[in-house]
Amino acid sequence: MQYRQLGTTDLNVSLIGLGTMTWGWQNTQAEGFEQMDYALAQGVNFFDTAEMYAIPPTPERFGTTETIIGHWFAARKNRDQVILASKITGPGLDWVRGGDNHINKKNLTLALEGSLKRLQTDYIDVYQLHWPNRGAYHFGKTWDFAPDFDAVAERENFLEVLNTLQGFIEQGKIRHFGLSNETAWGLMQYLQLANDHNLPRAVSIQNEYSLLCRHFEPDLAEIALSEQCGLLAWSPLARGILSGKYLNGAKPAGARLTLETRPEHRTGKTVDDAAAAYIAIAKRHGLDPCQMALAFVNAQRFVTSNLIGATTMAQLKSNIDSVNLKLMPEVLADIAQARREFAQPY
């Protein structure tokens, strides 16, 4: 396993991070335990979860993934071996805290206490804001700059959040904090306010990144490198699309996009054509398509950890093994050419 420094902290996290959002829906607790046991044995020391998991979010599944992780900590007595990240849910789900879920001091306090209880731990290493109060362009949403956007009010909220997080750190309930699904403006505001007011500095930003989704480049990538606030890349296989299993309208039994009923924005001829192009590159060079896609993410200097997700042990083992694959210049040249043809498939 390879390790990278988490922001400006003294923590070194595994380049492959273990995503957990299928546990409690596609995966049972026993399967979650098996995945955690194997990942830890392979040197994966960074686990990422959220109060909202399992996915897709429902009132019945809220908190189930954290609960599974908490049971594993209790059974294995190994909390100190894991660098654990979780998240507070942003606004938008009317069944989370009665629908009044603006990220502020009140809801941060309620959310953190709930996560700590489910996780059966006294502290979370990296506590993240799942998405901004003002909305995000992630999850397939069309995000327009709101006509009533109030930058002063947003910064006041950011200060409230930072002061609240500082209190959690002083209480020993969290060690650091990170952002998620945030924009370049939002990330820079948080960093500047932290600097101006001697408040906690974001150590990471968790946004979507894959061969099919490279919104993070170039602006956020520049900030991540220059400000030492690296990317925790989610959906590096574009929900499995880069495996090729959904090509030509295929719906394999038990697969996530087969089971989900929510509209999926990663669909259509352009997405299929782009995925097929990358899969063809992998096959031309004798590579596994998933490992090639993950190795591409691993190679980016602005990436701190690549958050894989798996529903089978075979997938998990292959995904973790991607850390040992270095893409040759001719592969990277083919990938660059494919990107010119499919700049932003979705």
Written overview of the protein:
By secondary structure, this protein is an alpha/beta fold. Helix content is 39%, strand content 14%. It has helices at residues 29-41, 64-76, 105-119, 151-171, 184-197, 219-226, 256-259, 269-284, 289-298, 313-321, 329-341; strands at 3-5, 12-14, 16-19, 46-48, 83-88, 124-129, 174-180, 202-208, 230-234, 303-308. The strands form two sheets. It has an eight-stranded parallel β-barrel with strand order 3-4-5-6-7-8-9-10, surrounded by six helices. Strands 1-2 form a two-stranded antiparallel sheet. Helix 2 packs across helix 3, helix 4 packs across helix 5 (184-197) and helix 8 (269-284) crosses helix 9 (289-298). It is globular, with a radius of gyration of 19 Å. The model has no long low-confidence stretch (mean pLDDT 94).
Total of helices: 11
| Backbone CA Rg | 19 Å
Broad structural category: alpha/beta
Mean pLDDT comes to 94
The low-confidence parts are none
Q: Quaternary arrangement of the chains shown?
A: single chain
Give the strand content.
5-15%
